[in-house]
Specification:
Blueprint: E1 15-19, H1 48-60, E2 65-69, H2 79-87, E3 94-99, H3 108-114, E4 118-122, H4 128-135, H5 140-152, E5 157-163, H6 172-182, E6 185-190, H7 208-218, E7 223-224, E8 234-237, E9 244-248, E10 261-264, E11 269-271, E12 280-281, H8 282-287, H9 292-304, H10 310-315, H11 326-329
Parallel strand pairs: 1-2, 1-10, 2-3, 3-4, 4-5, 5-6, 6-9
Antiparallel strand pairs: 7-8, 8-9, 10-11, 11-12
Helix pairs in contact: 1-2, 2-3
């Protein structure tokens, strides 16, 4: 059996995002619905044992890196136990987690000891009032303390920053200074139509090109680092080597042709693309007592049917708000 997960465009899946909950303790404007959120029933979620079994199958099929996502993964109890189980899988090269940082501070030490190798922490502003306006809660200092704790514990931390025109684009230089001062990678993300609020429009997108212009006006010229083509972030640094700035230009420079990621939702649905509306239900196979071979067949079928991605949506002028909702599919 060919152990590579190859889709119809010749892309090979090497990275797996696993959402462990759709719930979140924040309500960011670019992600969560503003009201009437319908949560998954807790008994519909994959158990940690089921996640570990699926992860072993995916690693057998060539997956090398796993990222734990949500919702907010730390609202699910004992996430460190899952990290420990995953870290024992032979052939898995790395385990990381994306978090909003509100609850993670006191877990950083045990997460690292359990095998977590890096954290992506979301931070969209350094202004506490603006933080509350964008996230729905008064939590800025908790997130900053979590970042500081990760740095103190020598757990590599990257900052994810969604830039929205008129909301926080004036803070781009501040984030650059933060990267230069701390050594943390800062990744600027173009605003994508994955918002539960339906507020997305192309007028709110600040392009990678525009962000680089803003940075070059205030600092020495950015110069590109050697980039892994499959990594969505295009990484840059400065002549003095201080700071690493990444850009995820999903809207203005889509990177679908190099995509090597697939996703499992908290209730066990496999999505081959962040913008795909169709999925395959792996949990139903697990609950039905199906064999690993049956599950592998389903995974292969899903990957082979992977769509071209957002690049096709852009080509056909089909961009619109809420193409998918981020908290339900996982980042």
């Amino acid at each position: 059996m060919n152990n590579n997960l190859v889709d119809g465009f010749g892309r090979i899946a090497k990275k797996l995002r696993i959402s462990i909950t759709d719930r979140c303790n924040m309500q960011c404007v670019y992600c969560m619905p503003s009201n009437n959120t319908i949560w998954l029933e807790q008994d519909s979620l994959l158990s940690f044992e089921q996640i570990t079994r699926l992860a072993k199958i995916f690693v057998y099929l060539g997956i090398e890196k796993i990222k734990i996502t949500g919702g907010e993964p730390t609202v699910r109890g004992n996430v460190e136990n899952l990290i420990k189980s995953l870290s024992s899988i032979k052939g898995l090269r790395s385990i990381s987690m994306t978090t909003n940082g509100i609850l993670v501070k006191d877990k950083i030490k045990i997460l690292k000891e359990s095998g977590l190798e890096s954290l992506n922490i979301s931070l969209d502003t350094f202004k506490p009032d603006r933080f509350k306006a964008m996230s729905g809660i008064d939590g800025f200092y908790k997130v900053r303390n979590a970042i500081n704790t990760a740095i103190d514990e020598n757990l590599p931390v990257k900052i994810n920053t969604v830039i929205i025109k008129g909301w926080n684009d004036d803070e781009i230089p501040h984030f650059v200074r933060f990267s230069r001062d701390t050594g943390c990678v800062v990744k600027f993300i173009e605003f994508m139509p994955l918002d539960g609020t339906g507020m997305w429009s192309d007028e709110l997108v600040v392009s990678k090109k525009k962000m680089i212009e803003i940075i070059n006006n205030d600092f020495d010229q950015l110069s590109p680092l050697h980039n892994d083509k499959s990594d969505p972030a295009r990484l840059y640094t400065f002549e003095d080597g201080k700071g690493v700035i990444g850009f995820i230009p999903s809207i203005t420079e889509p990177f679908c042709q190099n995509c090597d990621r697939v996703r499992i939702t908290a209730d066990g649905k496999l999505y081959s693309c962040l913008f795909d509306k169709s999925s395959n239900n792996l949990k139903s196979l697990l609950d039905g007592g199906k064999s690993d071979i049956d599950i592998i067949k389903c995974i292969n079928k899903s990957v082979q049917e992977k769509p071209e991605g957002i690049i096709k949506i852009i080509k056909t002028h089909s961009l619109r708000p809420t193409l998918n909702v981020m908290h339900t599919i996982g980042g």
